[in-house]
Every structure is written in structure tokens, then in C-alpha cells.
Amino acid sequence: MTQTVSKPSVQSSTTTVAHDRTEVTDREAEPNAGVVHGLYTDGAAIVDSKAPAGPISEKWTQRKFDAALVNPTNRRKLSVIIVGTGLAGGAAAATLGEAGYHVKSFCYQDSPRRAHSIAAQGGINAAKNYKEDGDSVYRLFYDTVKGGDYRSRETNVYRLAEVSTNIIDQCVAQGVPFAREYGGLLDNRSFGGVQVSRTFYARGQTGQQLLIGAYQALERQIAAKTVEMHPRHEMLEIIVADDGSGPRARGIIARDLVTGEIETHLADAVVLASGGYGNVFYLSTNAMGCNVTASWRAHRKGAHFANPCYTQIHPTCIPVSGDHQSKLTLMSESLRNDGRIWVPKSADDCDKDPREIAEGDRDYYLERLYPSFGNLVPRDIASRQAKNMCDEGRGVGPKVGDFRRGVYLDFAEAIDRLGQAAVAEKYGNLFDMYQRITGENPYEVPMRIYPAVHYTMGGLWVDYDLQSSIPGLFVAGEANFSDHGANRLGASALMQGLADGYFVLPNTIRDYLAKGPFPAIDEQNDAVAAARASVESRVQKFLSINGDRSVDSFHKELGQIVWEYCGMERSEEGLLKAIDLIRSLREEFWRNVRVLGAADTLNQSLEKAGRVADFLELGELMCIDALHRRESCGGHFRTESQTDEGEALRHDDEYAYVAAWEWGGENGTPVLHKEDLTYEFIQLKQRSYK
Amino acid sequence: MATNTLPKAGPVTARRTTVFMKLLMALSGALFVFYVLVHMYGNLKIFGGIEPFDEYALHLRTLLTPILPFGGFLWLFRALLVIALVAHAWSAFYLWSRAKGARTTRYVAKEAARVTLRSKTMRWGGVALLAFLVWHLLQFSILKFNVGSGAVNGSEGRLVISSFQVWWVVLIYFIAMVALGMHLWHGVWSASQTLGWAVSPRARARAQATATVVALVVSVGFMLPPLAILFGIVKGN
Amino acid sequence: MNLTLKIWRQTGPSAKGAMHTYPVTDISEDMSFLEMLDVLNEQLNARGDEPIAFDSDCREGICGACGLMISGRAHGPEVTTTCQLHMRSFSDGEEITIEPWRADAFPVIKDLVVDRSSFDRIIQAGGFISANTGAAPEAHSVPVPKPAADRSFMAAACIGCGACVAACPNASAMLFMGAKITHLGELPQGQPERDARVVSMVSTHDHEGFGGCTNVGACSDACPKEIPLDVINQLNKDLRHALTHGH
Asked: What's residue A4's pLDDT?
């Protein structure tokens, strides 16, 4: 790791973005194409050197051996702050507590059990090969790298596959009630288009069950007093202090959401396990409180943010029903196994009862465009085509704004073929959920679906040890960028969260902690006082603006911009427009937001204001990242980079790297550090689903 | 507001829990169920006439003699019943006062946290039964006073017949037996729940059915003699 | 549709609260109940009144953060969580009373927000299996009969929302606790700590100020995850077992 928190020397020459391929757009002919150049500067390349040399299957064992040990009696003198209590944070807090470290755990929810990992439905992958169907650590590794469209780091992904088997053992020992066969052994299913059955599950509530397992382990450590739990606390700033041995992460400033008190918490190391930033889109499948604040405050203090434009859009969500919509609900992708997706051929039919639209007037567009995969094309294609149909004016369902945002997912044929009972057996719970939310009976009327943001692959840049570019700041779970590349495979999010939390982080952080305890710092330390003062002044600023618009209205508007221009399909023109829009929205926010109530009490508007303020900065960086990456990869279609047939075209020659962005200062531009992705064990291939 | 483990109040033992109180209530209640079933069966002897009834009353006193003195078994059993009664009432009071303390701010909406009809009758029905018990013991065991006009001559059977020829005595008994039926209806089911005998929906349905049967048999069984006497079906001669 | 909302407002934990009446208009029946409150909050914010505080997070019925007493029923008229309740379950012109969960073990923090950390402390008392990370045997080394695994899962579906306590006339948390006892007690891995777990958890439950169970069944009726009363039975049985085995 070469980066320190001090701002690196900005390279004198600004970047030149390659514009020499695909068809030349009009914009490029114009003089203002140079606007791109002013948006960021190039910085030094990064090399992650933590992974030891040698065969890939030996690296993790070697790293664990190389990592320094901490004497058991010294552990309680070493303190670790962990922000977030989802699978990664909860598991890490429990494990470090068991090991004897002094852990302080924080979550904004009223209980660690409510972290949003709980909402994951499908399952968790592990290379157990219980089905003897040819699965192996190597195959899980291969599938994950391929699924990530060759934009993830080989070493990290191999380790993920390697520890996946331990996760299942650990969870079973904790009492996670996985689905079982009649013989009493664990059941597996095939998930997300892979050809082996390696997904362990607990009905449609796997995330819940795994999280409850981690939560119980955490509560056990709270009772044992190794973990100090701070629920209803939100981290608002990170403390990066120089104790004489260079700047390092030494604590956080948190707000007690009940009393409003701004608290300083100091430690020897800080772990962020604060989840993804999908809520930048306002509407997503994330929980209402999911936010980027912890990551973003760390980014502003020197942690690189990697691949922020990599977000995952899930094709089968329940569509938006009106402007009041506060969140989107995911339905299992398995629905596409039996449902047929269509829209009317003519926009005039869009407000008709779908049952009255004749077969010949329906456009089963996925079957038409992708005859061999049909309705089972990958998530990104299904999502993008749904958006295309609606953009053409052929969407269905209620109009929200000027468009109808929905396509039909029709089970009439499946009900004819299999009978209603068989369909109910397979999808009954999903149908019930759909009916509860929409009030429509999907056995009679076709379901309506629309894509929604589901997961963010981007996140804080970490090395093989999960350490960010700030020494002493570690990042685990969805909050880091490391394992999923440009696209995440189904049932891999739970695997990564628990791998990081139970097995990876506790092993790598000890190498860092072994150098401690670090010289004590107190509240009088300049960095601590400055962090605290900045949080206090920001809170006061929100409350004093007293403008005309609510926080939510800004959040909604930001979400629409990011969704429209930095969602499934991106173009240079759109992204440039989005950056302008976000900048003026941010300017208005700081001038015109209205946050009522006081600072010294539970104030949910104030909480939201801080989160939205950070999303307004992140949104811009996402657009800049998307703009600079002139290739289509993973779930992201770049209009300037497509094949003759209009399919996604990746450019491994130019973009096989991680884009790690360094904060460029309040009025500066972000600095791009590239970490080249070298594939020693896997050969790069272009996807094709035609 | 860090979540801290509260200091434990006293030693952690099963005997200091509300569930133990429920067990106490269930077990003492079970003894009463057994007792009322036997009592009810004995009462039905009145249909055989005064002599068999008096004989039965005498027999209760000679049980286990000469190991025990005359009336000894009855007194032992009575002592047991008193202990059970104290345990039953005490645990009921304990749980009731806990429940009051567990929600000191009530809901505004009237519908909120309402008890079911059956369980609602448990507390006040229980108190009513206690009051009835005092009357009943005074009337037939302790004072043995005759509110009717028939001759008694030291015969339990004659006392019963004379008493139940008075309509308001029968009415008191009728109300008490309705209360007892309700109490048993919830109580028997509740006890099976507390004792962990209803761990599945089927077992629960069985417990419900048992409770209904016990409640009906006991209350109807107890009411048969008074009604028969009132309407002159049993005259005692 | 137009509605009249009567909502409990309370500025802080020790403040005195009261019911306030808010008319809301143009409510779509496709809104969720919480989205309807979002609309009200936007209106309050626009006219300078502080928005109403209420807990919600995932809004898909699984995190357990939301929970309101709606016209006297925990989570409202349907068997679901408050976030999954939609306005089509109400009729135009209806008056709806909205209160926080009421239990002394769940003190009100503000408006409709209550402190449910007593649930976490019950779990701390023994709602876990002591298996340190790394100490686990191979997952297939202990088979679990499918019926036991299924029953365990059924109980483990509890989301810790607190509706059982809110609906119980005794403000008892036996359903919540019984669910955990059953979840862990059905599994072979849960056996070594089974007796100690139930005694410790019930003791903590009582100490936290929850009421005792009188087998009313309102908890199970209110449970959005339809956890059956069986789990309280199981708890009673386990406690009786512990009692006769020296606890």
C-alpha cells in the first residue's frame, strides 16, 4: 500500500480520457468535450502488495501465518471500534470480542439485529460440494470473477471462496436453521444462473437467519463485557490523528440519536462495516436508514473510494406506484423461470387491461431479442431492456411523472401448463407479497415488475488485509469494494459479509493491532477536537438554514438524477448533465433545506439531512467515475461502448483496473488512482447471451 | 445509551420466575379439578336417596381408618386444599399485580390489549368463586345451617334437600356453577399450556376440547341435584 | 381517501404526552401506512411543525423496526408488519388512533418511538449457542431431523418487533422468548445450554418488568410472523425440566 492520508502530489498533466474508439459522438466534436478533463486528475498508481506471492491456493494460509500474533493478555488493552452490525460488522465484533479485544460496536438502529443484511432472501454460497456436482473452491472463485465481469481482484475472490466452507460450519454450530433434507443433512439449491447447487438457504429468509446468528454471538459478547454496544448511534466523523508515528484512524465522532449528544470514541483501530450506498438513488431495496455517511466521512479524510459507479440493478422488483413511494421491494429472481416478460406492441394499449390485449399485440421482447436465453438473460440485460421498453413509451401500470414504469411478468402460460396449485407451491409466498403490496391478484392479472437498485459493488478501497488507504481503518462487507467486481453473483453478498467478519478481518487486523497499543490520545488532541467541532458545526448548520424544502424532497430529486443518468445505461452527455444537476441541487440544499426540531433530542429530519448531504457529494463522484469508464461492463451499459448488435462491450486493454478515487478537497477535483487488475489464474472472456 | 447488562436481581433460579408462579397456579388448580370431579360425583349420590348419600358422607370420614383416626383423611385433604387455595390465589394475585405494573400507561384505544372473554372471567370469576366457597362451607360444613323448612336431624342428605328446596339458594348455586364452568374452561386449557402439554396445534386442540368437557361435566353435574330437588324430582323420602 | 389521525405526541422520554388530531387528505390506497405518515410529515414540515417520530427501516417486513398500535391493534388490522400494511385496508373518512407500544419495559423515547433494548438484554441472558468463531465442526457432522429444523426455523422467524408485548394484556414477552427457546432448543447444537438458557432468559424477562403470561393468546394473534402459541408451551416445558434438574 503506497497511499497515506496526506494528499498525494497531483500530477501536473491532467488526464486524457481516451476518445478514440466506437462511433464518434457529436459531443466529441464540440469544444466542450474538454469538460471531462476538468472533472478529475490522475494520481499515482496503486499496487496492493499485501497478498503474498505463491500459488493462489496458498496465499491466504501464508498471509495468516505472516500476520503478527497478539498475546492473549494484551488483547483487552487493544480497542477496536466497529461501525455497523450487519453480517460483516456483527460477525467481526463477536469474533474480536471472543478473542479478547475490547470492542466498541455502533449501529444507528435500535438494535444490532435490525441491520439490513436481515432482508437478504435467496441464500449463501459455499464451495462444500455436498451435491458432488463438480463444485470446488476453484470453481466458486472462477464463477465469482467471471460473474464480476473481470473487474475484481483475484486474490481476494479466491480467499472468499476458500473460507466460504467455514462459514457454513460456523453458522450451523451457532444454530442457524438452514433448510434440510429428510435425511437431516443440509439442502442446497442452484441459484443465480450457476450450474452447480452450492447455495445454502433458510426458506426466503436466509439473510435474517444468518444475521440473527451473528447477532446472538454479538449479544453473548456484550453480556461477557468484551463488546460495548452503542445502538441508536450514528458515526458522523472519523478521527485520523497523528500520535507521532504517522496519521492513523484512532476513533470516531458519533451522535447519540436519542439525546443528540455528540460523543468522541477513541480506539486503536476502526472498522467500517456500514453497508452499501444504494440509497443514493432514493428508491432502492435498501432500508430507509442505509447511508454512505461513515464511508464518505472516511473518504473525505483520505480513504480512497473505489469503483463508485458499480451498482447492481435487480430486474424483478415491484414497480413504483406513485410519488409517495418510499422504498422498493425485491421479489426473487426465480420468478423469471416460469414467468414471461412482455409489454404491448403499441403504446396505445398500455392502459388497457392486460388480459384484453391479444397475443399478437404483445411483445415478448426478451424472447424476441435473446432467443436462446429468453426471459432468463442476466440481471443487467433484463433490467436494461425493461427500462428501454418504458423509455419507448410502452411501459405499463400507473403513470409516475410522464412515464409508466413497469413491464408485465405473466404467469398465465405457466398456470395453464403446470396448474395453479403447482405455481402456488413454487411461488405462493411471492405472489402473496405482491398482492399485499399492489392489491392485485397475480394468479389472474399479470404481475408488473421494474428494475431497482439492489446492491453496490463499489465502496472504500481496501488492500488484501481489508485495510483502507488510511492506516488503521479497515472496511468490511458491502462497504468495501473488493470481491464482486462490476457485478455481484446471487447469494454472494451474504458470503462476503460473513467471510470478512468471521474469518478475514479478525486475522488481518491482528497484524495491525500487534503494533499497538498506540500512544494514547485524548479529547484535547487537535485532530479529535477538530473532528468534533466540524460535526457540531454541521449539525448547527442544518438546523439554521431554515429554507423551504424538506430533506426528502432533495433526496428524491437526487435519486431521480442518478437513476436516470448513472443507472443501467450511461452516456457521456447524460453524465455531464447529471454532474451539473447534482452540483446545483447540492448548492440549493445548503441554502434551502428545512430541518426542524432541535439538536439535543431524537430528530429524524436531522439524521436524514446529514445522510443526504453526503449522498449529494457521492452522487457526483459516481457520475465522474462512470464518465471516465468508457466501457460497458457488469451491469453497466455505456452507450459509447457497444457491439454492432447493441450489446455491452468491455475494454480489458484500457479498463482492467480498479478506479480508486481520492478526495480532492472541498473545491478541488477528485484524484484517480488506478490499481491494475492482473489475472494470473483466470483468462478474460467477453460475455455473450445472444 | 449503551446497552448494558442489567445487574441481576437476586440469584437466577427457576423458582423465582413468573413461569414458576404459573406452574404453581396450574398444579394447585389441577388438584382442585380432581377435587371438584370427586365432589360432583359424590353429590350425584343424592339421586339414590338420603341413606346412600349419608353413607357416602360417613365413608369419606372412615377412609384409611384405622391407620388414621375417624375423619382424619378428610382433614388431611382439607389441609391440602387450603394450601393449594393459598398457592392458587397468591400466584394469581402476584401475576395480576405484575401485569398492572408492566403497563402503567394504558392505551387510549379501547380495543387495545383486551383480554379474551374466557380469560377475563378468571380474576373476578376467581374472586367470586372464593366468596361462594365461604358461603358454601358455612352452609354445609361449618355451621350446617338450614335455610329451608325441612327437618334435618343431623343428616347431610336432609340438609341438602331442605336447602335446595329454596329457590334463591339454587340461584346462588347456579350463578356459582356458571362461574366455575368458565373458570375451568380457561383454567384447564391454561394449565395444560403452562405444564407444556400443548406443544403442537393438535395437542392444543385436544387441550381445548378437554377443557370444554371438564367444564361442562363439572358445572352440569353439580347443578343436577339442586335442580332435581327444586323441581321435586328428588324428595328424599 | 381522507382520514382523521389521532396520534400520540411526546417530546421526550420524561415529557408528558397527549393525543393530537391530524386530518390527512388525498391518501392513495396504494400507499403503505408508513408512507401515509411520510406524507403527513412532509405537510407538517412545510408548515413548520416538527414531523412525527416513528421507527422504520427495511420497510419490507423483516427488520422489525416498525411497530405502531393502530386503532387498538398491534400493526393494524392485517396480520403483517406496520410497514407492509397498506391504506386499502382502511376506508375513506375513517378515524385512526395511532399509539406507541405500551409497556413499562418499552419506555417511550419520543412520539411513537419506544426503547426495546430490553429484548436485547433477554437475548444476552442466554439467547445464543456458545460457539466461538473457528471452533465449529464440519456442518454435516450432526444431522438435524427435518421436522426439528423446520420447527426451529418457524420459531427463528421472529423479527423482535415487540407486537406480542404490545398486544398482551399483561405486557408479557413470553412469545418473543418462547420463540428463541424453541429455535435453539429444537437443534442438537442448542442442547448443552438448554436448561440454563431458559432459566436465565425468563429471570431477565421478569427483571426487565414484563408481565407474566396468563395464556391469553393475544400475542400470537398479533404476531406478524404468525409464531404460534406452542412456543410458550415449549418455554414452560423447558423451564419445568430445568426446575427438576437442579436449576
From this structure: 40
Note the pLDDT of residue A5.
41
Whether A541 is in a domain gets the answer yes
The answer to whether residues A326 and A449 belong to one domain is: yes
With cut-offs at 50, 70 and 90, classify the pLDDT of residue B10.
low
Domain containing residue A389: 314-454
Asked whether the beta carbons of A473 and A303 are under 8 A apart, the reply is yes
Q: Where are the alpha helices (DSSP H) in B44-166?
A: 50-62, 72-102, 117-137, 156-163
Q: Are residues A426 and A539 in the same domain?
A: no
Task: Write the Ramachandran bin of A391: left for phi over 0, alpha for psi from -120 to 50, otherwise beta.
Answer: alpha
- CATH code, domain carrying A441: 3.90.700.10
Does A88 fall in a domain? Answer: no
DSSP run (H or E) holding C122: helix C117-124
| Strand partners of residue C74 | C69
In the CATH scheme, what is the code of domain B17-100+116-230? 1.20.1300.10
Q: Is A593 helix (H, G, I), strand (E, B) or coil?
A: strand
Flag whether A68 is in a domain. Answer: no
What pLDDT is recorded for position B147?
85
Same domain (yes/no): A549, A445 = no
Which residue from C183, C99, C187 is spatially nearest to C146, judged by alpha carbons?
C187
- Average pLDDT on B9-36 reads 90
The count of domains in chain A is 2
Asked whether the beta carbons of residue A287 and residue C184 sit closer than 8 angstroms, the reply is no
- Say if residue A319 is in the same domain as residue A444: yes
CA distance A541 to A10: 32
ipTM over 0.90: yes
Question: For residue A111, which of A1, A214, A251 has the smallest C-alpha distance?
Answer: A214
Q: In sequence order, what are the residues at sequence separation of 6 or more whose Cβ sits closer than 8 angstroms to the Cβ of residue B135?
A: B172
Confidence of residue B145 (pLDDT cuts 50, 70, 90): confident
Say whether pLDDT at B182 is over 70.
Answer: yes
Show which subunits contact C, needing at least 3 CB pairs below 8 angstroms.
A, B
Give the DSSP per-residue string, A624-677: HHHHH--S-BTTBEETTSB-TTS-B---HHHH-EEEEEEP--TTS--EEEEEE-
Q: State whether A318 and A450 are in the same domain.
A: yes
Length of chain B: 237
Same domain, A318 and A449: yes
pLDDT digits (tens, 9 = 90+) for B37-64: 999 999 999 998 888 888 888 888 888 8
Domains for chain C: give ranges and CATH numbers: 3-110 (3.10.20.30), 117-131+140-243 (1.10.1060.10)
| Helical ranges in A409-453 per DSSP H | 412-418, 420-438
Neighbours of chain A (3+ CB pairs under 8 A): B, C
Indicate whether A640 belongs to any domain.
yes
CATH number of the domain encompassing residue A612: 1.20.58.100
Supply the residues of A annotated as catalytic. Answer: 379
Q: How far away is chain C from the Cα of B26, in angstroms, using its nearest Cα? A: 11
CB–CB of C212 and B95 under 8 A?
A: yes
Block means of pLDDT (10 residues each) for chain A, 690 residues, are: 39 38 37 58 90 94 96 95 98 98 98 97 94 95 93 96 98 97 94 85 93 98 98 98 92 98 98 98 97 98 97 93 91 87 94 93 94 85 91 91 90 93 86 91 95 96 97 98 91 96 97 94 94 97 97 97 94 96 98 96 97 98 96 91 90 95 93 94 79
Rounded CA-CA distance A317/A331 in Å is 6
Is residue A409 located within the same domain as residue A318? Answer: yes
Per the model's pLDDT, the better-predicted residue between B2 and C247 turns out to be: C247
Angle between helices B156-163 and B50-62 (to 10 degrees): 130
pLDDT attached to residue B3: 45
Residue to mutate among B199, B202, B208, with most C CBs inside 10 A, is: B199
In contact, A462 and A481? CB cutoff 8 Å: yes
